[in-house]
Write a structure and sequence with these properties.
Blueprint: H1 11-25, H2 37-44, H3 48-61, E1 64-67, E2 71-74, H4 78-102, H5 107-132, H6 140-182, E3 185-186, E4 189-190
Antiparallel strand pairs: 1-2, 3-4
Helix pairs in contact: 1-3, 1-4, 1-6, 2-3, 4-6
Length: 192
């Protein structure tokens, strides 16, 4: 199945990010050989030249390296992998906070939403584990794809929270207006 690309940045950069996510998620193990450019291009649904450019871009970060006669390999330098993991996670958190703040949420509301999400995920995971009797660990490919889906989950949670806040504000305003009418007040002034 072809990889999904967006129009926000060049495809070769998205390829480099996808490969890095796959490496961080364990799809490609440290020291392992990557598939050929042609095989990766087929999998991603892109031109081999575009894949080559993406691989070169990833190579510049040090996460992969080339051996002229044998192909490309994932670095076995754990420090390089740790730096890439830190950098990608910081960027994901930055994007997440940007989306949440665009919904008018403050840091404490975002923190509460994250806690609620984690708690519900844990409860769901425990429920599934008790029903299946198996491990809750997913595949590395699913985890890698999930990184990109995290922003969508954040947006959905934020929209839900914003809708709840908006509904509560409307209810408060409506209740206040109704109480004022019952008391004979118009715009806070007693009617004659």
């Amino acid at each position: 199945m072809a990889w999904k690309f967006n129009d926000n940045q060049p495809i070769y950069r998205q390829i480099a990010e996808r490969l890095t996510r796959d490496i961080l998620a364990g799809v490609y193990k440290p020291g392992s050989q990557l598939p050929s450019v042609r095989d990766l291009a087929l999998t991603a649904g892109v031109n081999p030249n575009t894949m080559q450019k993406g691989l070169s871009f990833a190579e510049n970060s040090g996460i992969i390296f080339s051996d002229r006669t044998r192909g490309r390999f994932v670095t076995d330098d754990e420090t390089v992998i740790a730096v890439q993991r830190r950098d990608m996670s910081r960027e994901a958190v930055r994007r997440f906070f940007s989306v949440m703040r665009s919904f008018g949420m403050g840091d404490s509301e975002i923190e509460r939403a994250v806690r609620e999400f984690i708690d519900s995920e844990r409860a769901e995971s425990s429920k599934q584990q008790s029903h299946s009797g198996g491990s809750t660990e997913g595949s590395a490919a699913t985890a890698a794809a999930g990184i990109g889906d995290a922003n969508e989950a954040a947006a959905t949670t934020a929209k839900s929270k914003a809708a709840e806040s908006s509904a509560a504000a409307r209810e408060t305003a409506s209740t206040g207006a109704t109480a004022g009418r019952k008391a004979g007040l118009v715009n806070g002034v007693k009617e004659a």
